[in-house]
Amino acid sequence: MDFATVIQILDSAVRLMTPLLLACLAGLYSERAGVFDIGLEGKMLMAAFASASVAYATGSAWLGLLAGIAGAAAMAGLHGLASISFRGNQLISGVAINFLASGLTVLLGQKIFGLGGRTPSLSGAARFGEITLPFADSLRPVPVIGPVYAELISGHTILVYIAFAMVPLTWWVLYRTRFGLRLRAVGENPASVDTAGVSVTRLRFAAVMICGVLCGLAGAYLATGISAGFVKEMTAGRGFIALAALIFAKWRPWSALFATFLFGLMEAVANRFPNLDLGVVTVPSMFMNALPYILTVIILAGFVGRAIPPRAGGEPYVKER
Fold first, then answer.
1. Intervals of the chain under pLDDT 50
2. Angstrom distances, CA of residue 15 to CA of 9, 173, 181, 263, 270
3. SS3 assignment, position 252
4. 116 in Cβ contact with 140 (< 8 Å)
């Protein structure tokens, strides 16, 4: 394998990890506040459909992005209403969000476009274009550094750079601000936060809505960045993979970056080598395509016992009188 092939695989891994990273950070905010959310898949799916539909109708990827964020935020609001306001089971609420988004996107897609649940293909300004960073072309001939900068770091859409910027921003918000301290405290001991005069409900709703915004970015990227429109079930389990990455990262932002890169790398390798020839044996394409999902099972089986979630996670808070 030559250096150019390695760069291409890493470049593909960065593109494929972006929706996983955004969804993983989304789950991080929600679960740090004590609200477990397995509805990431549904939020991303709704965002992908909304962004593709509005981008096609208006010819603007930015309006599509806003629509995607609004669609995911609406799903997040439903989850917050069910699990925080009405103190329902958070897991059941997340499953309901997934089913609702799965059915609603196909129904609306068929009703609006008549294309079997998908949207028409996007082109031009309806998609996010790749950004060439300064000096990328002039540095390209430089050995090692040139290809890394010109092909791996440069040449991505704005949403990729936003996703990577969200990692240090999330770290700063959670560990260096009063809001982050309270949010983490709500996930560990909501009664103490309530005693201090801070609204547990308001904090948890804020975390759930931040989760919706980040899922909106992830879904919009799938439909208007990495693809050219919406197709049925296009998230393909990425919401669940993001949850596995979140557990693997032990609910920490920087660890989430490396965990999602690992999943993206597995998918990139599977796409690059459909049938991997190891000399002694050839790994079939079915196994290669299943690599990210096999890794998900391995992580959940091997690390779920060691990764300790927020203590108050999954439990609705009932104010003491």
1. none
2. 10, 25, 32, 11, 14
3. coil
4. no
